[in-house]
Amino acid sequence: MKNAMSANPYRPWPARITSIIDLTAKEKLFEFRLIDSAIREGFRHTAGQFVELSLFGIGEAPISISSAPSKQGFIELCVRASGSVTGALHRMKCGDIVGLRGPFGRGFPFEEMRGHDVLLVAGGLGIAPLKSLINHIHDERHDFGKVTIAYGSRTPADIMFLDQFKMWQHRQDFDLHLLVSQPDDEWTGEVGYVTQCFEGLRVNPLRTYGAIVGPPVMYKSVIEEMRKKGISYDMIYMSFERQMKCGMGKCGHCAVGHQYICVDGPVFNYWEAKNIQGAI
Amino acid sequence: MLFRVIDKTELPELLNGFLVAHQVIGPVDKGDHFEFAPVTAADELALDYTLTTLPPKKYLLPPRETLLSFGTTHAEDIEVVCEVTPRVIFGVHACDINAINRLDAVFLGDEFPDPYYRARREATLVVGISCTPFAECLCGLWGTGEVHSGYDLFLFDLGEVYLVSIYSVEGANILEATCHPRPATPAEVLDFEICSKRFHDSFAALPDTAELPMLMDVLHKDATWDELGERCLSCTACSVSCPTCYCFDLIDLTDPDGCGGRRQRVWDSCNSPGFAVVAGGHNFRDSGRNRVRHRFYHKLLSFRAKYGDMLCVGCGRCVRSCKADINPRTVIERLYRDRDRWLTEQGSGATGAEAAAAPAIKAEAAPATPPASVAEQGSGA
């Protein structure tokens, strides 16, 4: 996509909605297929990158890619109806056409992570970009050491990808923690915040990468737990949410300190994040 | 780079040379202000202008431009729109040319060159003109009263003649086709040196800026940002009038008949209250303090970290346009004042090392603790 796009990176490419799955009351999982075969086959992304989703006449919204890089031909976006573009997308149906441009930004350093233990922590909608990384690790599981995943939701009804979690739970080699902070009467799983998974968790700090995606309030406490386990500043990765309008480090909407979240991120390691005034 | 001399009487012919194949934009006297506008003859130019209300950036990055058109019934019908007029911007001061160079770095040099900006920039010639500093000028802060690239011709006014710096072959061709350029005489070289010295000496009263990057970090939580933030009207006149502010928004417009629409790029400003709002309504810079501070950090610190230059060229437009008296000069003076006050409050025992390590200064709560470890120096938004 990059080569074809380089002529005009503002040009969205038509994509057809091929599947819509209701996840929660507010979130749906959309699957898209780029119509132009050359553009579709040239599309390569890494977990943590995003696309600009266009609804013509309404506008664009930056959405992180939920599908794994190992799954090609389709692009999955997990979208919460929270604005004009995402609200309108929720009213669309299979077969409808949208525009996509991207992928943009810097994702998780998958190649660096290869050969290491990974500790993945998601809160709320943060599971959407992290799912891309989890599935990529899942597909190349033999290249990784211990894989620990913690996903926290407010209530059981807010949990996304429960089916996926059940699938992952069948694997012996994933240490999974699914938590809710406000359980209902039927909830039999773990209760609390993601940070409590760190109690008693054995981490080899020399060979562990951490990855965090969630609401801003979650970062400080999870980073603190990872630091307590001795994980190096530059092996703790996190993704930041901002309103990326252009995706190319120009429009200024996602600028924080001296970084543009859209090109320098959205994934940063903690050392980089610490050096951005106002990031955390 | 070549230097040649032409007589001032040759200016109309030079202008006619450009008019053959270009729309000519120049400074025009509008009575109560100057503005860059199309001209068709040399006598319409006001080359001794002080400051135009808007900088020439509007010809490279228009306030509103259409990027794409699309059919709303068939979304596939996307057409890229890019209309370009060959232009020469005639009579641009060095600060504004330096500003164009900053825009070039952003829109031409990055991983994603901007096709719209590039098409306009490649179709635009720039002819610079020397200037006489006036009260609002701040180019002496950053040395941006001089420019060494980014123009085709630059005219230094030496009274009866112009000393012309020739940068591009396009400029050289038109100059030689229309004028009689000759090498400078020793007297003209001396004239140039005198003018140059007079220009530099006129900035003697500007504040010191050598430690500014370090001070901006140390004073990130300084109360001065609260005061400036409360004063800021969020009118965005600073960004509109700034020759280097390039932030924009992308908006979709639907045609009234519902059959199609356009995606447009429009100027935007980080001083606009909703600039950093994300979906769901959270505003990452929800106070004037955070917005004003962000703008000045970008101007004086962040841009330099990325591109090597300040994102202020000292043109002085914001000195005029800001009704709350917030501009680089007042910000720098306040930061140095607060630095002095803070050093005094720390007492004579404060060493330079301790001063630099303290993360923040609040008049009421200057911490007297040892330097915090890196892990504890959180950076509040």
How would you describe what is shown here?
The complex is a heterodimer of chains A (280) and B (381). Chain A has 280 residues and is α/β, with parallel strands linked by helices. Chain A has 2 domains: 2-104, Translation factors (Elongation Factor Tu (Ef-tu), domain 3, Beta Barrel), CATH 2.40.30.10; 110-239, 3-Layer(aba) Sandwich (Rossmann fold). Chain A has 9 helices and 15 strands. In chain A, the strands form 3 sheets. A 7-stranded mixed sheet of chain A has the order 10-9-8-7-11-12-15, sandwiched between helices. In chain A, strands 4-3-6-1-2-5 form a 6-stranded antiparallel sheet. In chain A, a hairpin with a 2-residue loop joins strand 13 and strand 14 (259-260). Chain A is globular and about 50 Å long. With 381 residues, chain B is an alpha/beta fold. Chain B has 2 domains: 2-62 and 82-201, no CATH class; 212-247 and 271-363, no CATH class. Chain B has helices spanning 11-19, 94-107, 115-122, 139-142, 169-178, 186-201, 212-218, 223-231, 237-241, 288-307, 317-321, 328-346, 352-357, and strands at 2-7, 23-29, 34-39, 64-71, 79-80, 87-92, 124-129, 153-157, 161-166, 248-254, 260-267. In chain B, the strands form 2 sheets. In chain B, strands 1-9-8-7-6-2-3 form a 7-stranded mixed sheet. In chain B, strands 5-4-11-10 form a 4-stranded antiparallel sheet, with no helix packed on it. In chain B, a hairpin with a 7-residue loop joins strand 4 (64-71) and strand 5 (79-80). In chain B, helix 8 crosses helix 10 (288-307). Mean pLDDT of chain B is 87; it is low at 352-381. The chains are: A alpha/beta (280), B alpha/beta (381). The interface between A and B is large, with 48 and 57 residues.
